[in-house]
# Entry
Amino acid sequence: MKIKAVIIEDELNARKALENMLAIYSPDVEVVGTAESVKEGVKLLKTAAPDLVFLDVQLTDGTGFDLLNKLSNRKFKLVFTTAHDQYALKAIKLSALDYLLKPLKPKEIRQAVNKVRAALEDEEQLSLQIDTCVHNFNNIDQEKKLILNTSDRIFVVEVKNLIHCEASDNYTDIYILGDKKITTSKTLKTFEELLSAYGFFRIHQSHLINMRYVESVEKKGNGMVLLSTGERLPVSLRKKQLFIQALNAIT
# Structure
C-alpha cells in the first residue's frame, strides 16, 4: 500500500534531500506535494489529504506548530524535522511523536517510515499525540501533558499528577494521583530523560520520583523518602547527596 506524504520544509535543499531519500529507501512513500511556509502548508494539507506529513519546526512565516493550530482536521501521521530546537523537542518527546534531526540520515528516515506503517490505522492515537504536542508547545508556563502507551490503550496524563515511576523488569509502572497505575513497555531510563526537566529525580535504580510530592527524607543510612501520598521509597547511597541538593534548590 502506498503511503501518501507531503513535505513542509522551508529549505529547498532539505526538501529535495528528503524527497530523494524517500524515493530510494522508502519507495512505498509517495510524495504528493511540498510547501515551504505555514500558509502554503495549510492549503496543501487541505487538498492533498496525506497519510504522512514531514513538518519542519521553523518555516518562513512561522512554525510548524502555527500550522497545526490552523488545522481542524489532523488525521495524519506526523514526523517533525528540526535542527536541535530544544524547546520543540521537549514538546515532541512528551507526546511520543517521531522526529528527525537535521542533517537527515537514511537509516532514521527508514525507521520513522516503518513506525508510520504500524500506526496509520489508529486515527484516535494520531490525533491525541498531535493535540498533546501542540498543547505542550503552546503553553510555555503551564503544566505539560505526557502520552503513555500500553498494550491496549493510550493515555494522556498531566505531568504534575505523576507521583513516581518504578522499574519492573523491562517495563515501568507509572503511579498517578487517584490510586491509578499504568504499566508501559518503556524503560525507567526513558522516563528519566523525558521528565528530569520537570522536577523529577531518580533516587534509586528502580525509582524516579516527582519532587513536588516529597514530604521528608530520613537522615540515617541511605535514608527513605516519604511522599505526601504515603509511599516510602529507598534512596541509593550514591544518589542521596545529589538528591538533597536538588531538594534544597527548589525549597
Remarks:
- The mean pLDDT is 90.
- The chain is about 35% helix and 30% strand.
- Residues 17 and 234 are 51 Å apart (CA to CA).
